[in-house]
Amino acid sequence: MSPRVTAILIARNGAQHLDRTLAALAAQTRRPDSVIMVDCGSTDTTAQLLAAYGPTQLVSAGADLSFGDAVKAAVRLSGETSSESNGATNGGELLWLLAQDTAPEPGALAALVNALEVAPSVAVVGPKLMDWERADYIREFGETMTRYGATVTVVGEELDQAQHDGLSDVLGVAPAGMLVRQAIWRSLGGFDPALPVVDNALDFCVRTRLAGHRVALVPAARVAVAGDGIAGADRSPEGSAQRRRVRLRRQAQLHRRLVYAPAAALLPHWLSLVPLAFLRAFLRLMRKEPGSIGAEFGAAFAAAFSGLRVPAARRVLRRNRTLGWGAIASLRMPGAEVRRRRALLREQRRTLARGSRSELAFLSSGGAWTLIGATVAGIALLAPMLGASALVGGGLLPVHGPAALWQNIGYGWRDIGTGFVGAADPFAAVLAVLGSLTFWSPSAFLLCLYFAALPLAALGAWLAAARLTGRGSLRALAAVLWMFAPTFLSAIADGRPAPMIAHILLPWLFFAAAAAGRSWSASAASALLFAAIVACVPSLTPALLVLWVLAVAFSGRGIMRFIGIPIPAAVLAAPSCSTRPCGPTGGRCSPTPACRCPERAHPAGSWCSASRTATSAAGVRSSVPSACPGPAFRCWCRSCSPRWPCSPCWPCSFPAPGSPCSDC
Hints:
The chain has three domains: about 5-225, Spore Coat Polysaccharide Biosynthesis Protein SpsA, Chain A; about 240-325, no CATH class; about 365-580 and about 590-620, no CATH class. It is built from 24 helices and 15 strands. The protein has helices at about 15-25, 45-55, 65-75, 80-90, 110-120, 180-190, 200-210, 240-260, 265-270, 275-285, 295-305, 310-320, 335-355, 365-380, 400-405, 425-435, 445-465, 470-485, 485-495, 495-515, 520-535, 540-555, 560-565, 565-580, and strands at about 5-10, 35-40, 55-60, 95-100, 100-105, 120-130, 135-145, 150-155, 160, 180, 215-225, 390, 410-415, 420-425, 620. Strands 1, 2, 3, 4, 5, 6, 7, 8, 9, 10 and 11 form an eleven-stranded mixed sheet that branches. It has a two-stranded antiparallel sheet with strand order 12-15. Strand 1, helix 1 and strand 2 (about 35-40) form a beta-alpha-beta unit. Helix 1 packs parallel to helix 2, helix 16 crosses helix 21 and helix 19 (about 485-495) packs antiparallel against helix 20. It starts with a strand and ends in a 43-residue tail after the last strand. Residues about 80-90 and about 580-664 have low confidence and may be disordered. This is Glycosyltransferase, GT2 family. Pfam families: Glyco_tranf_2_3.
């Protein structure tokens, strides 16, 4: 006789797809012997639709009940435990797991039951899951794991041309449409409560395999799924759903890793959860997936502090396991196939990036308002400096003509310390280029740069954030935080143009480098920005080189566009590094090419007004008097060249103690 089939349908606010599912259930050529429906706290018309179908039993449950727990409740409340012994002589009782968005084709149940009848060693069978809207498109067909426990779909996102109908034995199947022997379900304890949404069926199938039973696919059984998030992860394209999906998948993987690990490896695995989260978060950032960073940490902490769930799952596994892990080794996805799939995925992402580059939406996402606000803030901060012709103070000195700018970038006498003959420091080239923009008045470029500093920093940060997120609020937040960074404001206030320029250029470098893998022009821009930043703040060189190495490692086919990015910086810095002698005291490398002079406190305080742009050592050379009480101090140091707005100590040579400006 044919085994008895109990269909269990779980629904939660699923009126949108429930009509089609109920109609498909009623149209089965092999009707279930009983139908148990569980309504998990629905607030729409789901309960009425379920009642109208006329199930054998309708169960009302809480809204927070997971799919596996709802199935357990249905089995427990079915009241047919006595039929299990009767069904055993007739082939055993079967459980057919459905959700509100699983619409089986008319012959699906008949094909599934037949697969269990002809193969007594098979305990679980799964259908071919098709797309809800496209009946000829495979959504998922079989599940397996990589060597490190990551879940992988055997077949997914393909047009169904019967090319995979030869598949049979697999490691796992999806929960939607699964047909399982009730005796196996009861002996294994059903789905793991610690896996409410993701990997619950895969984990159950792994335990089924280790208990000595088989898991198989039935290509003749086709079930349409919509991905509402009841039986399986929510397939919604919304950002919040995607982040939740990433977190649940990673959390499920980490939980299974702790459950499957040998006892000796359990503690090392547990200790590695949070450190791995930091590493994976950095990799997410490199892959332009900042929205998944929080999911990585959330999954790591949830798995690390899950209470007694891991010990309970390990006890269930140990109690029912009769085979070793080698029994399922052949069912895991080979490493070569994993690498091939990842390469195809990277190529697909690159193709999409080249074929449909997302718009920045500068106006619609608030970029214009951010720039306007930054401009207003910059003008308000430096309003007393309007009308000035030059800035003096801190590391700022007047510039005497564009010729002097370019003459100083060559090889010659350097007025640093006691003086020497050698190559110019790289920052001299940056100053020469910037000063030439206002060749009629080279000193004016610093004044213009100060007024444009905040808007340029905000715009660069906004564009850099646009590479990572499409949300205008996050872009604006990044712009504001970068614009008002304490180090940036300190560089402006102290009259240190080198770190100020580096701060402005850093987000522009990120913006250009993000597109360098697919554009030679972006690669060239990245190289120039890289060189300028290194010239301004040499101490950033190690960090930039580390990021460059990582970019090269993950660049794939675009590696040639990344290889040459540091070359201009190396060419610019090589003469200075190779020829400049150390100072009279032995010298040491300077973190920034700026002369630090003894600060003189202004009588009105360190932040008297915006006119104190070079706080503690600043002045505005113009006909407009300073807005602050007291004198506007100017710092002139013998170790600084009288022709330069900033005479760098790059990379070494400091004056001896007791010499003029010995704090440099």
